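Run log // design_07
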């Protein structure tokens, strides 16, 4: 577990001051999270509701839990009372369910618009034109408990760094366009969540201010 402390300190030391780190703890045991926590880190990302539900009660209360996976609308109610940020808001149905469950527990739940920029059909998210259509047509401004706080994306899983860079560049340009058109007066719309263990340096160069790093910190997944 000492290696985890060293790894997370190395990643943090490598980041510009404006970039926040989400330590992706999915599939890793409580002890691994405790090791990262003991190094001073407080932001952790999970991608399965059941796993998050099991971990939260047995870990410190001041952890900021981010949900980074594909979230089914019928699972929102389980994490609504405490989740700090939902990264992958990928449908209008999910947005409305986040608002509904936020109202039930009396808290605004920040979430990110997931945009699909990768050359992989398996990735979730709005296509750029689809995202602009939804923002211009649905009554999302009337939602009081789902707080749209930025954008998230994933690059194609490839060794082609130029392709990865172009995808992040596309995401950054889209963020600026969306910000200007729909959130110009909203200071909370500021999160650009892209970049993972193998590509976060490129992501930061292309505008990211929140990265999601797992393997570089915790090592290979433990299934």
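design_07 sequence
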């Amino acid at each position: 577990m000492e290696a985890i402390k060293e790894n997370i300190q190395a990643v943090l030391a490598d980041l510009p001051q404006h970039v926040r780190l989400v330590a992706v703890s999915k599939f890793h045991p409580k002890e691994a999270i405790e090791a990262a926590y003991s190094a001073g880190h407080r932001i952790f990302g999970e991608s399965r509701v059941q796993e998050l539900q099991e971990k939260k009660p047995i870990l410190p209360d001041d952890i900021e839990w981010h949900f980074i996976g594909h979230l089914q609308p019928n699972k929102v109610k389980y994490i609504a009372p405490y989740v700090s940020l939902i990264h992958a808001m990928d449908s209008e149905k999910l947005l409305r369910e986040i608002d509904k469950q936020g109202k039930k527990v009396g808290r605004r739940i920040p979430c990110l618009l997931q945009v699909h920029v990768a050359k992989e059909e398996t990735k979730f998210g709005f296509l750029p034109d689809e995202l602009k259509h939804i923002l211009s047509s649905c009554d999302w401004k009337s939602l009081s408990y789902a707080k749209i706080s930025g954008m998230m994306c994933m690059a194609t899983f490839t060794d082609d760094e130029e392709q990865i860079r172009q995808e992040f560049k596309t995401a950054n340009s889209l963020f600026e366009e969306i910000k200007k058109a729909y959130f110009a007066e909203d200071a909370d719309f500021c999160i650009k969540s892209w970049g993972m263990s193998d590509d976060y340096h490129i992501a930061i160069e292309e505008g990211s201010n929140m990265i999601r790093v797992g393997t570089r910190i915790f090592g290979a997944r433990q299934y």
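The two ends are 17 Å apart (CA to CA).
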